[in-house]
Amino acid sequence: MQAFPPQASGSVAEQVNRLFDALPDVFLFVKDRQGRFTRGNTAWLEMHGCRSEADAIGKSDFDFHPPALASQYVAEDARVMESREPLVNQAWLVGDHHGTPQWYLCTKLPLFADDGSVAGIAGILRPFDQAGQAPDEYRRLTPVIEEVTQNFGRRLAVGDLARLADLSPSQLQREFRRLFGMTVADYVARIRLVMASRKLRESDAAIGQIARDCGFHDQAHFTKAFKKYAGQTPRQYRERRQGHQ
């Protein structure tokens, strides 16, 4: 990889942007005060299915993520801007444009205008199981996360998952609550819903079949859980998403 030549043109900010574009496992984004994206590096754009920055500018989290998740991201942005303090290494479950979920460590900091007011927010996402700096406590749970991601359609017992991390079931539950703010069952349900949303967008399979494939007892249970998660029924979600393709 070539270093920038001494005569590199553009502002310092533009040159720093070029550096971030060269980092494949660092996802940089910038939003304005209203939560609209104004910048995303190459890795972030690819993660969100954007062919260029023009596909992302002016859009918000609600254009890329289910409402339940998007509202959490936006609420956290608001807390950072109100506190005027950075938030470092917060764990978040984020799905890419294929719907594949992964845990990331997210660092956000407020951006200030010349008059000292908060003008927006900048953030960086790092996959915690890929980054060498990831805390050991997160890496310890990587086998559990991989098992759930690969086998979300099967019955997943807490005891079996705990053994993968060399923990007792109660220890695993405490670690999930402490690090991710949810129980193991909540995490499994979240993965199933994220993967179900992907199938709804990308396949013509019957909703009942998708429910079974994603580990739900029946279609009624799936519909109730999905509506709570996405703010709409599976059928409504499919019709709206496929209608925009």
Description:
By secondary structure, the chain is of the alpha+beta class. It is built from eleven helices and five strands, in the order αββααβββαααααααα. Strands 2-1-5-4-3 form a five-stranded antiparallel beta sheet. It is globular, with a radius of gyration of 20 Å.
Number of strands: 5
The largest pleated sheet is described as: 5 strands, antiparallel
Mean residue pLDDT: 82
Low-confidence stretches: 1-9
Strand content: 15-25%
Q: In sequence order, what are the helices and strands, one letter per element?
A: HEEHHEEEHHHHHHHH
Look at the helices and sheets and give the structural class.
alpha+beta
Work out the radius of gyration: 20 Å
Strand order of the largest sheet: 2-1-5-4-3
- Cα(first) to Cα(last) distance is 37 Å
Count of helices? 11
Helix fraction bin: 40-55%
Shape call: globular
Give a topology summary.
Blueprint: H1 12-21, E1 27-32, E2 37-40, H2 42-47, H3 67-83, E3 87-95, E4 101-112, E5 118-127, H4 136-139, H5 142-150, H6 158-164, H7 169-180, H8 184-202, H9 207-213, H10 219-230, H11 234-243
Antiparallel strand pairs: 1-2, 1-5, 3-4, 4-5
Summary, kept brief:
The chain is α+β, with helices and mostly antiparallel strands and 245 residues long. It has 11 helices and 5 strands.
Which terms summarize this structure?
245 residues, alpha+beta, 5-stranded antiparallel sheet, 11 helices, 46% helix, globular, disordered N terminus
